[in-house]
Specification:
The chain has three domains: about 20-195, Rossmann fold, CATH 3.40.50; about 200-270, Helicase, Ruva Protein, domain 3 (Orthogonal Bundle), CATH 1.10.8.60; about 285-395, Winged helix-like DNA-binding domain superfamily/Winged helix DNA-binding domain (Arc Repressor Mutant, subunit A), CATH 1.10.10.10. It contains 16 helices and eight strands. The chain has helices spanning about 20-35, 55-70, 90-100, 115-125, 145-150, 175-180, 185-190, 200-215, 225-235, 240-255, 265-285, 290-300, 310-325, 330-345, 370-375, 380-385; strands at about 45, 75-80, 130-135, 165-170, 190-195, 310, 345-355, 360-365. The strands form two sheets. A five-stranded parallel beta sheet has the order 2-3-4-1-5, sandwiched between helices. A three-stranded antiparallel beta sheet has the order 6-8-7. Helix 3 (about 90-100) packs parallel to helix 4.
Amino acid sequence: MFEDEHVLQDEYTPEKLIERDEEKDDYVEALQPVANGGTPRNIFVYGDTGVGKTVATRMILDELVTDTDEFEDVDVEIVWLNCKGLTSYQTAVQLVNSLRGSSRKISSSGHAKAAVYEMLWSELDDRDATHVLFVLDEVDSLGSDDNLLYQIPRARSNQHIEDTHIGLIGICNNFKFRESLSQRVKSTLCETEIRFGPYDAGELRTILNQRADKAFVDGVLDDDVIPLAAALAGQNTGSARRALDILYNAGSLARKHDDDTVTEDHVREAVSVVEKGVIEDELRDLPTQSHLVLYAIAQLEQQGETPARRKEIYEVYEGIAERGEFDVKAQRTVLDRLGQLSLKGFLHVNEVNKGRGGGKHHQYELDVKLDLVLTVLDEHSRIVEATGNQQLSDFT
């Protein structure tokens, strides 16, 4: 059935970026000062999950490094970091360690913030590279603590660094994160904005055809398979990742059933398989504070204490946040998180009306399987640390 199924999987990077010519041109224009030996422009990249932001960024930067290898006076170094689950302080520590050898790495805690920045500036000034570009993927995970996003782009103008040119590329799934940034950060991080919109069905069909040529044995796909997979993904999310998942699972189902070809029936069956995975991905992509609220409700559910009122949830949330050294948000913020989680379909809300004099209130409980929530939360290292390094699923 498959010639090379890896081609349909998430970690595969295609040789050529297709259906993103406009975004690629924007990237090239923004990075042109680097090739000219000048100061990089800072770039804010945003768009929903699965629309090519990370793949495009990797490919463009690979091309930049390859091209500038031929220049005598330009040497570019890329430092890539996923910020999921990290605070601004931890991100700064990770960047220091990315620039240091394994024998000189620093611990993730115990250093004054100013000292970490000094280490970062020192490492940057000691680089042989003329340019260092920091790529912060899922930068919205840093939340409202945006001091690092201010410090890095201004390190040279503030005379923390003398020789090395610094650039920052922030990749974000949620454009609303931009609205939460302070004005001083917006003026630097968002110097150039590149939006990756959802793919339409025609673009998804082109992408699927590109991958299918390498992924499948010739002749095993019925003619309607790729158009159907593209149409279903296009009308739902516009995500190439979703379309590729549907096609891959359709092929896997055909193989499982010992069928000779992949058909429309396999595609439709694959959609339900992918939907479960999508819920898991959406849970995983939630911001840290939403994960903390979910953890609180999951803990209450494990103890048989749901549906629970907001006050009860907040008390558990507060304890978790304090143990994990997270920012403890106000009750109003947690209420907003509960509302957002409800809108996404992760929580069921029940209004309890006790009649005249008794008032009314809302009670919350999980509307997705507990084991699915626990699986996702167990991947969040700082939340696990808040339980004493014991995985949440161990409590079931």
